[in-house]
Write a structure and sequence with these properties.
Layout lengths: L3 E5 L7 H16 L4 E4 L10 H4 L16 E6 L16 E6 L5 H7 L4 E3 L5 H11 L8 H14 L10 H11 L8 H23 L1 E6 L2 E10 L3 H10 L8 E7 L4 E6 L2 H11 L2 E4 L2 E3 L6 H10 L2
Parallel strand pairs: 1-2, 1-3, 3-4, 4-5, 7-8
Antiparallel strand pairs: 6-7, 8-9, 9-11, 10-11
C-alpha cells in the first residue's frame, strides 16, 4: 500500500479502546515502514483518566488535507454514520471492530481487510495483528500499556459476557511489554470513579449514543465503574434528563458484578426487565444479576423488535 495511512475511530468521542487501537495500530504501520498517523478529533471520555492523559501519546487531533492520496484504517468502529467526517468510504483500506451490524457492508467492499470479530476489546485484534507481523517485541511501552488497559477496561475486567479467551490471552501476552504499577487496575478504576464524582452529568453526555427504539430516538448512556453503590444514591441529584428526552443508562458495577439501569421511561424499564431479568429497586432504577454492556443490550433491542 502506497500513500499515507490514517488510523481513526469514531467522530463523537474516544474511549480507552479507540485510543489504544489508534495509537498501537499507527505504531505497527510505522514499524512496517509505512507513513502513518493516528487522529482522534472528538473528546476523550472518562475511561481515559488523568494519569493516562499524562503519558506521551503520539496522536493528532485534526486532519489536514494533502495532495497525496491516503488510506483510512478504521478501528473500533464500523458504522459509517459515526465515522470521522473527513473519512471517505472509498479510501478505507482496512477495518478492525467488535461492534455488530455492519459486517456485510464492509465485507462486500473489503473482503480480505474487514476484521469485525466477536472479541471483548478491539485492542485484542490489534495485538493479534502485532503478532501476525512478528512485531510484538517492537511494541512501545505506551502502546502496550494502552492495549493492556483497553482490554481489561472494555471487557469490564473480563467479567462481561462479550469476553473471550482471545482477550485473556492477549492481555497476558501484552503485560510482558507493558510498564505499569502493580496495582494499576485499582489505580485506574479509582481515578475513573473520581472523575464521576466531579461531573457525572457531563461524563454521561460524553458516552451517550442516540439509538432508534421502535421508531423514536432514545439516549443510551453507559457508565463503567469499579463499584457503583456510592453513585446510585446521589445519581438523580447529579443527572436530570430534559423532560422530552427518553434516557437509558447502563451503570456497570464491576466489583459487584451487576449492572444498574437508570431510565426515565416506562417502556424502556419494561423492555429492560424483559431483556435482562432486571428487578426494580426504585422508581427509575433496576438492577440485573450480572454485568451487561451497552453493545449486548443494543443487540437484544435491535433483534427483538
Ligand atoms: Mn471497543
Amino acid at each position: 500500500m502506497n500513500g499515507s495511512h490514517i488510523v481513526v475511530g469514531g467522530s463523537a468521542y474516544a474511549d480507552i479502546d479507540v485510543l489504544a487501537c489508534v495509537v498501537a495500530y499507527t505504531e505497527l504501520l510505522l514499524h512496517n515502514g509505512h507513513e502513518a498517523k493516528g487522529i482522534i478529533t472528538g473528546p476523550w471520555n472518562q475511561t481515559i483518566p488523568n494519569s493516562i492523559r499524562k503519558w506521551p501519546i503520539p496522536i493528532e487531533n485534526s486532519f489536514q488535507e494533502t495532495l497525496n492520496p491516503c488510506h483510512f484504517i478504521l478501528v473500533d468502529i464500523s458504522d459509517p454514520k459515526f465515522m470521522e467526517k473527513f473519512v471517505r468510504i472509498d479510501q478505507v483500506s482496512e477495518i478492525y471492530d467488535h461492534h455488530y451490524g455492519h459486517e456485510s457492508f464492509w465485507k462486500e467492499k473489503l473482503p480480505n481487510d474487514t476484521h469485525i470479530e466477536r472479541v471483548g476489546a478491539c485492542a485484542t485484534l490489534i495485538w493479534e495483528k502485532f503478532k501476525e507481523n512478528n512485531c510484538e517485541h517492537l511494541i512501545s511501552e505506551v502502546s502496550a500499556n494502552l492495549l493492556y488497559t483497553a482490554i481489561f477496561s472494555n471487557t469490564l475486567n473480563f467479567k462481561s459476557l462479550v469476553t473471550v479467551d482471545r482477550d485473556r490471552i492477549a492481555s497476558e501476552e501484552i503485560l510482558k511489554y507493558a510498564s505499569l504499577p502493580q496495582d494499576w487496575k485499582s489505580i485506574y478504576y479509582s481515578e475513573v470513579a473520581e472523575g464521576f464524582n466531579k461531573d457525572l452529568s457531563t461524563l454521561i453526555q460524553k458516552d451517550t449514543k442516540l439509538v432508534d427504539f421502535h421508531g423514536s430516538q432514545i439516549y443510551f448512556g453507559q457508565v463503567e465503574i469499579w463499584n457503583a453503590t456510592p453513585i446510585i444514591h446521589k445519581f438523580e441529584h447529579k443527572f436530570t434528563p430534559k423532560p422530552n428526552e427518553e434516557w437509558l443508562i447502563n451503570i456497570a458495577s464491576i466489583e459487584e458484578d451487576h449492572s444498574y439501569f437508570y431510565t426515565n421511561s416506562a417502556r424502556l424499564q419494561e423492555k429492560m426487565a424483559h431483556i435482562t431479568d432486571a428487578t426494580r429497586i426504585s422508581e427509575n432504577f433496576q438492577v440485573s444479576s450480572r454485568l451487561w454492556l451497552r453493545k449486548e443490550i443494543l443487540r437484544k433491542i435491535t433483534s427483538s423488535k
